[in-house]
Design brief:
This protein is α/β, with parallel strands linked by helices. It has 10 helices and 14 strands. It is 37% helix and 26% strand. Strands 5-4-1-8-9-10-11-12-13-14 form a 10-stranded mixed beta sheet, with helices on both faces. A 4-stranded mixed beta sheet has the order 3-2-6-7. It starts with a strand and ends with a strand. Mean pLDDT is 92; it is low at 312-318.
Length: 322
């Protein structure tokens, strides 16, 4: 099993709980409260380790909330390399309303990061020892838009496979530098990246193929929520329907997907097999409440069930060449 490192530039102290109903001005009593370490890369590491892998978390953190994040990472027994910052680590809140069955998620922009702080992060990553480096999550204020491209260049120089999962300028400029091994945009992120509506599978596949053709990424995995997912590489396109599950919370589904896919790749599985395993991990995350993320037993059970299921229909779940 390969070792991975994850990078989370704008982590969160994740808080989740449930309330009976939502009403303005009233004090609403909640229950089933959870506190978890969060942010894209940290979530990927949590699931990767649950699957039996080894992961080191690189992350920026500061203030009282940053100290709480450190404690939670230790509680989850995650290996960590903290880059201290002067700003306060942000708090993300997820509230499930039993009356409506709706989930409400609140997250802030996060701290302002100084040049000295993001440069210290860059220097630490020069020493990272891993086979995969996963940069996941948004860029905090103060970090240059091309930061992920800088990290991708470090990874290439050191023979490390670089994986990118971001949005906005972080995604656009991270891809612009080229040489990304795997990029995992959601459909919404791919639409914003291309500036196109991408109304059908053909348009989505063409947009993903363009990323591969430009040498920006070897593998493009597009997640589409209830509509499934699509994998594109130089050999063709694989389109899969969603795995049907009863939803509890959508928090961390994309991060779980990415962790599952990287875990399978690190075990030596093909890209298509890893993509299917990642999809099972994303579905498993939806089963867990609040910020709990995917569990290993659920991932493996859903993966086995999906493999045993009959094809969803001609052209929808097959590998298309070219």
């Amino acid at each position: 099993m390969a070792d991975i490192a994850t990078l989370t530039l704008n982590p969160t102290l994740d808080v989740s709980f449930e309330v009976e109903r939502i009403a303005p001005t009233h004090k609403l009593r909640g229950d089933k409260e959870r506190h978890d370490p969060g942010g894209g890369g940290i979530n990927v590491a949590r699931v990767f380790v649950r699957l039996g892998g080894n992961a080191r978390c690189y992350y920026l953190a500061g203030g009282a909330t940053g100290a709480a994040l450190d404690w939670l990472l230790d509680l989850h027994q995650l290996v960590r390399s903290k880059i201290p910052i002067s700003g306060e680590t942000r708090v993300s809140t997820s509230i499930f309303v039993r009356e409506s069955g709706g989930e409400y998620r609140f997250v802030t922009d996060g701290p302002l990061v100084s040049a000295a702080e993001w440069q210290a992060c860059e220097q630490q990553l020069e020493e990272a020892r891993c086979e995969y480096l996963v940069a996941s999550g948004s860029l905090p204020r103060g970090v240059p838009a091309d930061f992920y491209a800088r990290i991708a260049a470090i990874a290439r120089r050191r023979g490390i496979r670089f994986v990118l999962d971001s949005s906005g300028e972080g995604l656009a400029q991270g891809l612009a530098g080229g040489g990304v091994f795997l990029v995992k945009p959601s459909l919404g992120e791919l639409r914003r990246l291309t500036g196109e509506a991408l109304k059908d599978d053909r348009a989505v596949a063409e947009a993903a193929r363009a990323i591969v053709a430009r040498g920006q990424a070897e593998l493009v995995a597009v997640t589409m929520g209830r509509d499934g997912a699509m994998l594109v590489d130089a050999s063709g396109t694989l389109r899969l329907p969603a795995i049907p599950v009863e939803a509890s919370s959508a928090v961390g589904a994309g991060d779980s997907f990415l962790a599952g896919m990287i875990h399978a790749l690190a075990e030596g599985r093909t890209a298509a097999e890893a993509f299917r395993f990642g999809q099972a991990a994303g579905a498993a995350a939806v089963l867990t409440p609040g910020t709990d993320l995917a569990r290993a037993d659920d991932i493996r059970r859903l993966y086995a069930a999906a493999l045993a299921a009959p094809p969803a229909g001609a052209g929808h779940a097959g590998r298309e060449q070219g």
